[in-house]
Amino acid sequence: MERLIQLGADIVKLWDRCGGDYLNGMKNTLILALVATAIGCLIGLICGILQTIPHSKHDSGFKRFILAFIRGVVRIYVEVFRGTPMVLQAVFLYYGLPYFTNNTVKFENIWLAAILVVSINTGAYMAESVRGGIISIDPGQTEGAKAIGMNHVQTMLNVILPQAIRNIMPQIGNNFIINVKDSSVMFIISFTEFFAVHRAAVGQTYLYFPSATIEMVGYLTMTLIASFLLRWMERRMDGDSSYQLVQVDQLTMTAGTYSHPDRGTPFDERSKEHRARVRQNLKFGRSRGER
After folding, report:
1. Hey, where are the domains in the chain?
2. Under a CB-based contact definition with an 8 Å cutoff, are residues 124 and 111 in contact?
3. Are 218 and 243 contacting, i.e. CB atoms less than 8 angstroms apart?
4. Residue 12 and residue 154: Cα distance in Å, rounded?
5. Could you point out which of 4, 220, 274, 286 has its C-alpha 20 to 30 Å from the C-alpha of 238?
6. pLDDT tens-digit readout, 16-61
7. Which superfamily does CATH assign the domain made up of 2-238 to?
8. What is the rounded distance in angstroms from the CA atom of residue 116 to the CA atom of residue 136?
9. Residue 288 has pLDDT above 80, yes or no
């Protein structure tokens, strides 16, 4: 109990000294994660669509070559950035460009470098998520869209992508939460995010564990709030589950049979066919086949 009281006192003392820096670090972390996730989703969406463009042996050789080339480039990009740590990607991008270009190409804006690294990394993961979301849609919907005259672009925009995006919404949220945590490696390029503030505060006060406790609570708070908001968005996208079929329009199909507002159906008392059949039965009786 005494150690817990001491921990609380150290946290209060540390917050009094560096509280503003911690809040600024949290703000930078959230902005970086949000912007990079949005850009990464756009990259992943483009890559996922490019990987699912249909082709057949009847297409021209040029088209097949271009599609194979694009898929090869996308596959290399995905495998490289999924198979290497983000911290090394940041090092190669931020320090590698000046090294190979003799300092002629380098990042003057640290924000640009951090957003670019996290966005490219996120895009590699989202590319596979989008591809999986697209191919998970029932092929019958694509065939139905083509049957009513839609081309591939119209089918993707109006039929496939709206459903695919809803299916991958949990993965988008998962990537955002991962970026909130994994952006901590951006201290390697001197970006001032939440974890970088922790390192600076420890260097000033030598209160390592109290500062780590603040970091733990801060990251947990950000991820829990993000999870709550993302689940709320998913429910909003799903719509109301307690819906009822519209029964106002007289053309509504309530029993699987089209009901004309004036003539009814062949099974309806209002239809001419039904009245003529009743009169015939009354006059001549039912035929043998109908008995």
Report:
1. 2-238, 244-285
2. no
3. no
4. 58
5. 220
6. 888 889 999 999 999 999 999 999 999 999 998 888 887 777 778 8
7. MetI-like (1.10.3720.10)
8. 30
9. no
